[in-house]
Amino acid sequence: MKIVGIPFLLLLLFTSYGCQSKDKSKNQELVQQEHLEVPKKESLTASQLQEYETAYFASGCFWCVEAIFESVKGVKEVYSGYSGGTEKNPTYEQVSYGRTTHAEAVEVYYDPKVVSFTQLVQVFFGSHDPTTLNRQGPDRGPQYRSIAFYKNEDEKKIITNYMVKLKEEMVYDRPIVTEVKKFDTFYMAEEYHQDYERNNPNNSYIRNVSIPRLNRFKANFQSYLKEDTH
C-alpha cells in the first residue's frame, strides 16, 4: 500500500475553489442538475445499519471524505455531518463559517468481516494531508481540521500506533497535526449534503477539488476499492 503524502495536495493547495462558498451556490447548482439523471442509490434502513460497526473521521470538506469512504469495500453507508465540538444541533452555515467548535465529519458504517478499523484508519491518513493545521486543500479554518475519533481504547491504540509508524517511516516531511479525539456525538448534516458528490457531479467544487482527490485516492488504494469503483 502506498501512503499519499504532500504531493497529493499540491493540486488542491493552489485551486481557488473553497468549501465555504458551496452553500451560497446551492440553488444555482441544483438548477444545473435538473436535467442530469443520476442513478438512485439504494439506502439501508435503520435496522440494517445496526448490523454494522461505525467509525468517525474528519479530514476536510465532508463531500470529499464521504465519497472516499463510500468507495471502500466493506463500507456499507457513509453520512456527512458535524462532530468534535460542544454545540448542540449545529447547522451547516454555523459550522462551515467557523461559528462552532465542530468539524465537518463523516459517519462510516462498515462490515468488520470485510474491512477492519485499522484499514479505515489507513484510508483516513492516506486520503488527506494530516500535516496541515486547520486546513485541507483550499479550505481553511478549524472546521476543516484533521480528527481521528475513537470509541474505545482499542481504537485509540490503533490510531496512535499508526501515527507512530507514519512518523518512523518518515512518510511526511512535516509533523502530523491530526487530533486523536474521544467520540461523543455525531450530528447529521442537512439532507442535500448526503451523497453530494454522487448527485452533483457538475458542481464546480466537486469537479475541481473533490473528484481529483477521490481519483488520487483510488490510484493509491486500488486493493481497497469496491469492484464498481475501480
Features:
17% strand; six-stranded mixed beta sheet; Peptide Methionine Sulfoxide Reductase, Chain A; 230 residues; two-stranded antiparallel sheet; alpha+beta
How is this fold's topology laid out?
Blueprint: H1 10-13, H2 26-32, H3 46-49, E1 53-59, H4 62-70, E2 75-83, H5 92-96, E3 103-110, H6 117-126, E4 135-136, E5 139-140, E6 146-150, H7 153-168, E7 179-182, E8 187-188, H8 196-199, H9 204-220
Parallel strand pairs: 6-7
Antiparallel strand pairs: 1-3, 1-6, 2-3, 2-8, 4-5
Helix pairs in contact: 4-9, 6-7
Rounded Rg: 17 Å
Helix coverage percent: 25-40%
Query: What structural class should be given to the helix and strand makeup?
Result: alpha+beta
CATH superfamily: Peptide methionine sulphoxide reductase MsrA
Number of alpha- plus pi-helical segments: 9
The amount of beta strand, in percent, is 15-25%
Total beta-strand segments: 8
The stretches of 5 or more residues where confidence is low (pLDDT under 50) are 1-16, 23-36
The number of domains is 1
Secondary-structure arrangement, i.e. CATH architecture: 2-Layer Sandwich
Text of the CATH class: Alpha Beta
| Gross morphology | globular
Order of helices and strands: HHHEHEHEHEEEHEEHH
Compute the separation of the termini in Å. Answer: 16 Å
CATH topology: Peptide Methionine Sulfoxide Reductase, Chain A
Function: Has an important function as a repair enzyme for proteins that have been inactivated by oxidation. Catalyzes the reversible oxidation-reduction of methionine sulfoxide in proteins to methionine.
GO molecular function: peptide-methionine (S)-S-oxide reductase activity
Keywords: Oxidoreductase, Signal
Organism: Flagellimonas marina
